Structures are given as structure tokens and as C-alpha cells.
Amino acid sequence: MNMKKIKTPSLINIMSEKEINEEFLPQLENATKNLFKILYQLNSSLTLPPRELSFALMKEADEVESFLDEFGANQNRKFFFFRELVATIRWFNFYLFQGLHLYARLKHYKLQIHTKEFKQFKTELKNHLMFAYKVIKKISNKIFEEGKNLGLKSIKKSTTPEKLFPQLQRKILPPDLVIEKTEEKEETIFKILIKYLNVCEEFNLFYCRKREFLKEEPVEKYRSLFHQLESLYDTYVKNTNYEIEIPDFQKIRGHIAVSWHLLEMAKSIAHFYERHIEKLQNSDIYYKIMDCIGDEKKLFEITEKFLFSFVLKFSMKGKEICETIFNKMGKKPEEFLIETKILTIPSYRIEDFHIRPIMPVTQIANQYSLDLFLYFKRKKYNLKSPIEMAIAIPDIREDLSKENVQIIIQGPRAGVLKIVEFFKEKVGAFEQELKCEILMS
């Protein structure tokens, strides 16, 4: 029996020039109406905008960019530049909003820094927010101009003062329910402190080795880790006797929150650079957008010397606070504070670096409750595990046959110091200083 093939229409239909003018442009005009009003309102001020206006812009820019992508503007020559301008506003405003929120909340965080350091950080933060605000204003002028070129009639200054943004402050019912103290479990609270120290030390190593500052993936990793720490704190530490009796716990909460917001800001810069600027390099659009920013060096400078540098600073201060907390909890700080050491093993000592003389390192590592790790060429080995060390040793020996080898030891301070001495004695390893330049002394 012959079956006739049934043709199914494509889900994608390419618009004609007539359809673009008669259907798409009116829809775009409607979609961008509030965006343009907000941008005009932003452009009229010389001071930092209120969080409410930045929040409204965040919502509108996201909706307009999604609308443009739905119609394929990211692959259309005529509308691509307009779409990139919207994206630039979106990500610089996300940076601005996170910073405005941090700026407003800063005085409520119990930060363990001197008054001079606090003022310096606040000044630096405000300066960087003003930079982002100026970029948004410059991009706004370009988007007005490009909108006119596309034939959008909605680009005209509103003469009536409209309230375009919602109030972020909300009304709630009276908090008259008696909230019982959170059931405290010392082991859980202790694990959260250890996790915090591990995250801080990981970030320390990442920053000091100056890797991938404008790559979204590693930035998102640390942003997510600090966010998790904040959630863990609020779930298991908040309202416990420990938090009430040891005020230093609230300082840890403040240091976590500040680091998280700074990394939220860093993520917006990394996303913008990786998804937009990097792909547009040396094109006409690239130069038009960068004309509003300065140059790529500015983006690296913001991330490395401001955002990441202060995350590192607050992490180092957090380490000091944890030492105080451990002492008050009756713990030995040197057995729990996380330390990182970089060692170089000279290639001429290859004959000393094999299974028999090296395996006792596992016995040292097993003296401590926390794990100790050896890092080699981005691989991580647990020093407590004979199996993992049996895998690591041949890998290291292979490179030792050609050149000096660098390894990283990380774990509780007391254990790290013992293992460093072990490698110095057995294979002539020598330490390499881990240098980090930070803004505050």
C-alpha cells in the first residue's frame, strides 16, 4: 500500500522585510518602552541610583534581551548591535545592583577590620559602582541612537514623572511568634567552620596563582561555595548558644556575605567578558562598546585588584576569627586551620622519590582528623590514602625524569608542616613562597 508522505511545516519561519517592519518592530517597541523610560531616568542623575531603580532595570533588560534572542537577533546583522547594547547594560547593571546592595548592608556586617580599612573598602566600592553607572549611561546613549536608527518611535524623553520601579522594602506581619533556639550540634557547627576555611584556602590558591580571572566557570564555583556557606550558617549556626555566647560567629557570617556579594559582581564581569567582549574582539561592535568602558585591562583590573583582592582579604581575616573561635571551643587551632605550601622537588633527587621512602607520608597524614591533600598538575590526591599515593608517585616521577617538579600540600597547619619537613628530608624539596598582592595591609 502506497503511503503519501505528509509534509509538516517548519517551526521556524524567516521573516520578510515587510514582516520585520509591520510585525517585529512594533513588538520590539512595546518590549523596550519601559526599558527606555528607566534609562532616561537613570541618565538624569549624577549620583548613584537607588537600588529600586537598578532592580527595575535588571528586570527590564533581562526581558528585552530574552525577547531579542527569541526572534534570533543574536544572529541578525541589523539587530545584533542593539542586542549587544542591551546585554552590556544588563550585566553592568547586575554588577551595579549587587554592589549597591552590599554598600547599603555594609554597616550591618560585623567585619573584623580597622576603621581605616573599612573606610578604604567602602570608598573603593563606591568608586567602582560609579564606574559601572557611568558605563550604563554611556551605553544608554548608544542604545537611544541605535533605536532611532532601527525606527523605534518609543525613544523619546518622558515628560511626566512616572514611578517605574517597585519599593524593595516590604511590609510584614508583626514578628510576635516566640522562636526557639536552633538545636545546636557542635560537630555540625565545627564542620561548617572547617568548610569555610577550606573554601577560603582554595580561593587563596586560585587568586595567588593568577588563573582565569575572567572565566565564568571558576568564578561561579567560588560564588556558589560562599553562597552555600551562608545557607549552612543560617540553618545550623544562627540562633544557637554558640552564636550567642561567641560573638565571633557573627563576624564569620559577615565575612561570608561580603565575599559572596563581591563574587556575584565578579561573575557579572566574567560573563560579560567571556560571552560578549571576547567573541567580538576586533570587530566594529567591539570598539563601539569598549569605547564606553575604556579597554579590556579595566575589566581585569576591577576583577583582580578590587573584587578578588578584597575577597582574599576578608578570607584571611576570617581565618584569624576562626582561630579565636577554636580556642573558645577548646580546640587546637593548628590542627584545624588550613594551610597551603608549594614545594619544588629537584629532578636530580628522582632516585629518592619512589614508593618505599615516600609511602610513610600516609602515616603522618593519618595522625590528623582532617584530610591532607597533595596537588600535582591539577590533580588532587588524598595523602591519607595509600592507593592514591601509589598512583601519584609514578606520575610525579615521570616528570621528575625531565625537570624539577612542583607540588602543593594542603590541609591542617600542623599536618602540613610535618609533611613539608618530611619531603625536605627525604627528597630535598624546598619551599616556594606563595605571594599575593592585596589592597589592604
Descriptive notes:
The chain is of the alpha+beta class. It has 3 domains: 17-150; 186-331; 338-432, Histidine-containing Protein, Chain: A (2-Layer Sandwich). 63% of the residues lie in helices and 6% in strands. The chain contains 14 helices and 5 strands. A 5-stranded antiparallel β-sheet has the order 3-2-4-1-5. A hairpin with a 2-residue loop joins strand 2 and strand 3. The longest helix has 36 residues, at 115-150. It is globular and about 80 Å long. It starts with 16 loop residues before the first helix and ends in a 9-residue tail after the last strand. Residues 437-441 have low confidence and may be disordered.
Name the descriptors.
5 strands, five-stranded antiparallel sheet, 441 residues, alpha+beta, globular, Histidine-containing Protein, Chain: A, 6% strand, disordered C terminus
The domain tally reads 3
Q: Which sheet architecture does the biggest sheet show? A: 5 strands, antiparallel
What shape does the CA trace take? globular
Helix proportion range:
55-70%
Radius of gyration, whole Å = 27 Å
Strand order in space, largest sheet: 3-2-4-1-5
> Could you give the order of the helices and strands?
HHHHHHHHHHEHHEEHEHE
Q: How do the helices and strands line up, and which of them pair or pack?
A:
Blueprint (H helix, E strand, L loop, with lengths): L16 H27 L7 H20 L6 H29 L9 H36 L35 H23 L7 H21 L4 H5 L2 H33 L3 H10 L2 H33 L9 E8 L9 H4 L2 H5 L7 E4 L2 E4 L3 H15 L4 E8 H15 L2 E3 L9
Antiparallel strand pairs: 1-4, 1-5, 2-3, 2-4
